[in-house]
Amino acid sequence: MSALSMSASPTRPQNAVIPDVPTILCLSSYFKGNAFLQEAKRLGAHVILVTIDELKDDPWDHAAIDEFFHLPIAGLSKQPDITYAVSYLARSRVIDRIVALDDFDVETAGDLREHLRMAGMGASEARLVRDKLAMRVAAQAAGVMIPPFVHTLNHAQVADFMARVPPPWVLKPRGEASAMGIRKLHHADELWARLNELGDRQSFYLLEQFIPGDVYHVDSVIWDGEVLFSAASKYGVPPMAVYHGGGVFATSNVASTSQEAAGLAVANSAVVHALQMRRGVGHIEFIHSHADGKFYFLEAAGRVGGASIDLMIEHATGVNLWREWARLEVAQARHESYTAPVPEQHFAGLLVSLARQEWPDTSAYNDAEVVWRLHKKHHVGLIVRAETSARVQELLAGYTDRVARDFTSSEPPLEHAPH
Ligand SMILES: Nc1ncnc2c1ncn2[C@@H]1O[C@H](COP(=O)(O)OP(=O)(O)O)[C@@H](O)[C@H]1O
Ligand SMILES: [Mg+2]
Fold first, then answer.
1. C-beta 170 within 6 A of ligand 1
2. pLDDT tens across 268-303, in order?
3. Is the CB of 179 inside a 6 Å radius of any atom of ligand 1?
4. 303 and 242 both lie in a single domain
5. Cα-based angle 159, 164, 166 (whole degrees, multiple of 5)
């Protein structure tokens, strides 16, 4: 149904469709999340998916979707269209939960929950996992270690920051997946010139110290404000280097018994609390500083990690984050409790690169540990799984070199930053 046909429908009250099962409305501006839809359906929920026309023919699992709507708008954040569309649906349905499958839908879902007065993250909480400045201010207030930063708002404060905090710095947009928009700066003059170019857009940026180090991500399941499951992983080369250098994106999980995993678990819980993440999944990134060995909070998202990270984690732990998210949304709608699964401990590594070839042939990449291959035009991607971290690292190192030689083009490898 389009927004037009929604508004053209009769205004007289219609027979309400009020199923006695939880109704979950999912928003997605990107094709993803079939595993969520399948699990919600399997648990007996009434599943509604709202997406955009452009994605209507993508391979959504229609068997898991009770009602499928696509809107003739560029993105689901378009107002008032999305509010009209969802409110129209709510005339004849009791919607229990709204779930944003994609990062771009998180704020929209927050606004809709506020409009419909529904449980779940409202607009301000949604902002804490979307706006890089909001998450820094909240993390800092809670005493979480973060790189020194300043909002590029008040010029005296920006000048003071640059006088106090040694370069290099990074200037980054607050609100979008920004690896490509991030600039590394070495002199105050560069910053002022850039702010001048940005004009009225400058308040949508922040400046922070560049912390050399390894970048990690912690993917977790959160229930009642507590982390019930988490897996820590380390990116091959930091995502910014992949973007700016056009290299191979890689990540692999670290042993749950390792010291780094322990440090990350503590840091991750602190961020979950600071950002008031009550229920759902989190994908939170940290920099392990080469200088002092501490974990610095980099950014947080209230959704499943992109770029097939979900599959890497499933191979490593047996836990599928989409499924757990669906389980906890259904449990919440039913006022039931949720218990997280006990993770297995394997090791998995993921590698993704843009390919010159339309359908790159990876059949020569045939170690027994290869458990998954990406099927996507002009992309190459695979997951390896082994019983030791060392073996995963060995395989990833070998394949990274081969992929760079055989396939990689100089473009960045992912449509969505792996943030
Ligand atoms: N303060 C920083 N110090 C060092 N590297 C950084 C810093 N901020 C960002 N980066 C690099 O840029 C990448 C992208 O930054 P991030 O804030 O995660 O934005 P996004 O993932 O939304 O593009 C990081 O993974 C890291 O490689
Ligand atoms: Mg990121």
1. yes
2. 999 999 999 999 999 999 999 999 999 999 999 999
3. yes
4. yes
5. 105
